[in-house]
Amino acid sequence: MRQRHVDVLVVGAGPAGLALAARLAAGGVGRVEVLEREQEAGGVPRHCRRRGFDGPGFARRYAEAGVRAGATVRTGVTALGWSGALAVDTVGPAGPETIDPTAVVLATGARERPGSARLVAGTRPAGVFTTGELQQAVHLYGQDIGGRAVVVGAEALSYAAVDTLLGAGVDVVAMVTDLARHQGDRLTAVNSRLGQRIPLLTQATVTELRGRGRLSGVALRHRDGRTTTLACDTVVFTGDFVPDHELARRGGLDLDTGTRGPAVDGAFRTSREGVFAVGNVLHAVESAGAVAREGVRAARHVRDHLAGAPWSPTVPLLVAPPLRWVAPNRLAPAMTYAPFVLRTAEFLARPVLTVTQDDRVLHRQRLLTTAVPNRSLCLDGRWVGSVDPAGGPVRLTAR
C-alpha cells in the first residue's frame, strides 16, 4: 500500500473542515490535505436551500477558499481506519493509500437517525426520508417526493423540511412532536400553523409506518394513550442527530457519553496527542456558520501543536439531567475557553446553571430566556481557571 506524509490531514470537507484547512494553509502550514468521501466538497449546505440561506453558494465559497489558500481537497476518498497513532488508511479513485500526517483533524460531522434507528415499526416502504435525504432528493436530483407528507419533529430543521416539501408541491398533513410544544422560533411556528394551516400534534409519537411498496400512512400514539393514523405517502424524520464518530471509535479515542462524539478540550484536542476534532462531530448540531467559525478557532490550536505546544492533561466536565450534553467536555485549566455549548431535554424557565468540583461552586449563571430542547444554550467559560487539575470531575447542573 502506498504511504505518504502531510503536515495536517483533515477528514471531512464540510464548513468546519474547509474553514480550518483554509486558515492553516493561508497561515503558512506546509501540506494541508482535506479528504471527503462524497464526490463534492461542502458538506450539508450543498443541498440546503431555505429562506435567507443559499446553502450551495455557502458550500462553494468555503471549498474555493480552501483551495485558493493552498490546501488540497480530495473528494471521493474514504478514511477507513488507523494503521498507527496518526496514520490513516484511505481508499479512493487511485486505490488504497496510507497517509501519515503530523496532525489529524476529524471534521466528519453528524447525521440524522432514520426511522429504523428510532425503532419505528413497519415494512420500510418507499416515501420515508430524513431531512438530509429529502433536501438531496429535491435540490440535487429533482426527484418526485409524493403528495401528502407528515413531518416528524418541530424544531428549526423540521420547519426547513416543511419549506422544502411545500416548495416541491407536497401538501404537509401535520407536524408531530413528542414534546409539549414546538422548539422552533415563534414567528416560523405561527406562520406554519396559521399561515400555512399545518396542524402541530404535540405529545405524540410515530409508532408504525403503514403500507407495502409505498407508504400509505403513519400510526401515532398520544400521551393520553390514544392511537390514531394519518394518511400520507411521505414521512420525513427530522433532527435527532448523532455524531459521525466511526473513525474516532475505530481509533480508540475517548467518546463523551453526552455528545457521543470525541471528547475534546477548549483547544479541540482529543484523548490522543496529535488528533483534533471540530464541528458537528462534537455537538450535533450547530449551524454551518457556527461550525465554520469553530474551524477558524481550531486552526490556531493545530498550528500551536505543530510548533511544539504541549498536549495538556484534562479534567472531565459532566452534565446531569435534564441537561443532555455540553461541549467542550474536557477542561485544561490553564486555557482560555470560549463559551460552552449545551442542550437540555426539557423546557426550563430561566434556569440557573451551576458548575461545581468536589462540592466547590466554581460558577453560577442564570439564563435570561427559557431553555428549549433542540436549541443550543451558552455557558460562560471564564471560570475554567478555577478548576483544580488534581481534583475530581467538574459537574454542570441546571435548576
TrEMBL record:
GO terms for molecular function: oxidoreductase activity. Pfam families: Pyr_redox_2 (PF07992). Residues 7-290 form the FAD/NAD(P)-binding domain. Signal peptide: none annotated. Keywords: Oxidoreductase. This is NAD(P)/FAD-dependent oxidoreductase. It comes from Streptomyces sp. R41.
